[in-house]
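Researcher: We're teaching a course module on how sequence relates to structure. For the next exercise, students receive a sequence and then see the predicted structure as tokens, so they can try to spot secondary structure elements on their own. Here is the exercise chain.
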Amino acid sequence: MTRPRRRVLAVLCLVLCGPAGTVLVGRVLTPRRATVGVATIARALVGMDPSAVVVDPGARRVLVLNSTDTTISVLDERTGVPLATTTVGSNGGAHPVRIALDERAGHALALTDDESLSVLNARSGRTLHSVLLGGSPSAIVVDEGRARAFVAEADAGAVAIVDTRTGALLGAVPVGSYPEEMVFDRRMGLVFVANQGDTTVSVLDARTSRPVRTLRLVDTPIGLAIGDHDRTLFIVGAQGSLTGVDAATGARRFQRVMSPRPIAVPRLLLAVDDARGTLLVAHGAHIDELDPLTGRSITAIPLPSTVTAVVVNPVTGGAIATVRGAVDGRGRLLGDGSLVIFDAHGRRIGTIPVGVDPSALAVDLANGRVFVADTNLDPDGRPAPPRPAPTPPLTRFLSRLRSWLPFLPPVPTARVPARSTTGAVDVRRLTIR
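Model: And here is the predicted structure for the students to work with:
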């Protein structure tokens, strides 16, 4: 005898039992896909090779580090209009290499290759102090609560301490050999210094400016990041290792191989997504999202070309990255780069064309702004000529009139002078819903 077939219905439901024995049945809803809105506000010409962009929301200013020039450009945050260009360095003519902000004091601090620190008024761009350091300064972090800047001096094997209000050099603390990268934990008041010469990380107390401990590693540290989620210090090694350390005690939490090949230092990018409690590591043409407790990969996000900058959406979580334009076999740029936006679940929700070679990125989502620096190259990799100024309506009318009446005198047209500057910053209005 054949048994009747039973029809099985698969129903996905959520069953909640209330205190009075009631049963509530409902669907399990998948997270709503976010949407992105973008509008172009301005494209501001800046100096050559802009390599860093920082935003001071209090001063409503954007500061751009022009690494091939000897200047810092200051833009209006809301409109993108260039307001000032400041020459930096102890003698007023050195290339800036790093920039940081002291938002509480309203100052910007720029390290230059003449071994000095320029302290600028972030709103006006005016130079307030110039501090001679020495020792090949390579990195800077700021303790805004104590108005202190900590500057790694690579050749000296020390960290210099500067008062950001007065520009006074307060002293120097010996660390390991060739300190190159730094990160500051504001909550614990600790400065972490990656010493590439002896494969260590020095820990300094920002309150006392004294060494706390030295972390010894097996791989040369080339990148540091720290998250608010569980106070883990992440250390990326040159041979592809990732080490997680308890920032408060120095105890090692995990160590694993993140990449089977050595990592290119100039393209290593780290960001901590505190909203999701994950670590983002970008190198090459992909972004890895890692579990901060184990260092294991949660997801790998492939991208069409080299990632040049990555930040985290501070409101909802998720990565915002810039990707270089595609290149041919000879390394020539073939097309526009892009701004790629991910939601808090790691899904790509927007891809926006930007300049050919985007080099730096900053966001101020509280005011709905994103700033993308571009070296402003043409598709052959050569500096692009500046865009001509728009022709006023009256000039267009007179030119058309002269085409009908050729005996009229020529209409004078505005000529854009030749510029050696090739950098630009795209200012976009960005909304994520």
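Model: If you want an answer key for the exercise: Confidence is low (pLDDT under 50) at residues 1-31, 385-390, 413-421. The first helix runs from residue 393 to 404.
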